[in-house]
Design brief:
CATH architecture of the largest domain: 3-Layer(aba) Sandwich
Structural class: alpha/beta
Distance between the termini: 144 Å
CATH class of the largest domain: Alpha Beta
Radius of gyration: 47 Å
């Protein structure tokens, strides 16, 4: 072309922003050399057409590039749309991410709060257990003095009816307080899984008979009639004797608690296949249907409609349920409704009678018999910082023919032991200065005390306390208030000559 040839025109087109992407087709009559083609393509040519132009070829090639341009526009628009969607989705994801981050922060805060609350709860449980242990010690010391005083009154033979009645009342209430304390600690220990059973083969018929006999006098005084239906043949169960008595005692106590004067309590035992079934039915205030399972929860008590005041801590049935389950059994409550009485059913696995059955026949040795029977005189040292306990226990032991020396603390107790070489030392654990554990360790460190029997007499009744006592060198561990027949049994076993 004149003035501007095709190459120059193509170069100017490529320089203009609005037309730099327009496809260029060169139309020429020149022969296409390699240099010619290279220059044209470098300036943006997309094709060459030889002159003279054939319209069909030109239209076909132009149509191809127009369609390519149209597709490019569509692709660009789709890319822009996708880019916009990506931006929107990215913004949505960022918003979701921020929300998730906020939720994570909130959950971490909640987790920290829960961890803090759990730590506070655990600390509260530890403080509760420490409080209960201290409560036991502080209450068991005065209880020990009361029980010892009652035993002294019994041994001295106060014949005045009013005095005997007052003595019996004080004795029953002291025993009741001891049972309440033991139940409270047992609930805490069962909850933490710290109670282990020591099962033996027991005739449960005899065990129930003895439990009823133990409570019969108290129930009669309250004006409550008791009937008992037991099979003639023994029924053996594999059970911890102490815990089985606790189950039976709490069932009877619960029935008496909610039965007014003039009511009745019925106790029965029967074998049902592989189980033994114990039923305790009363004619008391009854239980509403929605309370039949709730009453086994700790500290739940039913409101009494009669005039007797509410007694206990609301943990007796909780202990019954947990202890029965530990024995592989089940307990259930039933009632026809308020004021129509209630029935508690305990099912325990039974097994065939065994010659190794543990018989719980009473030997007739209540507190008075145990205190009055003849014992081999012993030299005994009592080491306790509680004046009332020292004096009452000393008086009881002296009335039974023993030679007794007293010490208010560990150092004086050690001095007396070294001086007189006693047969027994009854040592409180919570002594001022040297505690009972240290006293026992120092006694055992002296070869001269090899034959001396050490008994821990303490207000601390946790199983760990017994283990610590035995590890320190004690021969036995008794929890206050100490029953005189328990002491008498230990003394007797130590003086028996092997056959």
């Amino acid at each position: 072309m004149p003035t501007l040839d095709g190459f120059e025109t193509a170069a100017l087109i490529r320089q203009r922003p609005k037309s730099h992407k327009v496809p260029i087709i060169f139309v020429t009559a020149y022969d296409q050399t390699e240099t010619h083609l290279s220059r044209g393509y470098s300036l943006g040519a997309v094709d060459y057409i030889h002159a003279p132009v054939q319209p069909e070829i030109l239209l076909a090639k132009a149509s191809v590039f127009v369609e390519l341009a149209r597709q490019t526009v569509l692709i660009r628009r789709e890319a822009e749309r996708l880019e916009q969607r990506v931006k929107e989705r990215t913004a949505e994801l960022q918003a979701v991410n921020q929300a998730l981050q906020a939720e994570i922060v909130e959950r971490e805060r909640v987790a920290q709060d829960r961890s803090r609350l759990l730590q506070e709860a655990q600390q509260g449980v530890r403080r509760r257990d420490e409080f209960l242990a201290m409560l036991a010690h502080e209450l068991r010391n005065p209880l020990a003095s009361i029980v010892n005083g009652i035993d002294l009154m019994r041994v001295c033979g106060m014949a005045d009816p009013d005095s005997e009645q007052a003595r019996d009342i004080i004795g029953r209430q002291a025993q009741h307080m001891s049972h309440l304390l033991q139940d409270l600690f047992d609930v805490s220990r069962i909850t933490k899984g710290k109670i282990s059973l020591q099962p033996k083969t027991i005739d449960i018929v005899q065990a129930v008979r003895e439990s009823v006999e133990t409570r019969h006098g108290e129930l009669s005084m309250d004006g409550i009639g008791v009937s008992i239906s037991l099979p003639d043949e023994p029924i053996d169960v594999n059970a911890d004797p102490t815990r089985l008595q606790q189950i039976l005692s709490n069932l009877l106590s619960n029935a008496a608690k909610y039965t007014p004067s003039g009511g009745r309590i019925e106790i029965s035992i029967a074998r049902d296949g592989e189980n033994v079934v114990i039923r305790v039915r009363d004619t008391g205030i009854g239980i509403a249907g929605d309370k039949l399972t709730e009453i086994f929860e700790p500290f739940v008590q039913l409101k009494q409609s009669h005039s007797r005041p509410s007694e206990g801590l609301g943990i007796g049935l909780t202990l019954v349920k947990r202890l029965v389950e530990l024995h592989g059994g089940k307990v259930a409550a039933a009632s026809d409704g308020p004021d129509r009485g209630s029935e508690f059913t305990v099912r325990l696995p039974a097994h065939a009678p065994s010659s190794n059955r543990l018989r719980n026949h009473s030997n007739g040795d209540g507190p008075s018999n145990a205190a009055e029977r003849t014992e081999t005189p012993l030299r005994i040292v009592v080491i306790d910082d509680n004046d009332d306990i020292r004096r009452t226990l000393s008086s009881l032991l002296k009335l039974r023919g023993h030679d007794v020396m007293l010490a208010p603390d560990g150092n004086q107790g050690l001095a007396i032991i070294d001086e007189i070489q006693p047969d027994f030392a009854l040592i409180d654990i919570g002594l001022p200065g040297l505690d009972g554990y240290e006293v026992a360790r120092r006694v055992r460190a002296n070869p001269k005390n090899r034959e001396l029997k050490l008994i821990a007499i303490t207000g601390y009744g946790h199983p760990d306390d017994r283990r610590r006592a035995l590890d320190a060198g004690f021969d036995d561990h008794l929890v206050k208030p100490v029953l005189q027949q328990d002491l008498a049994g230990i003394f007797q076993r130590s003086t028996e000559v092997p056959a």
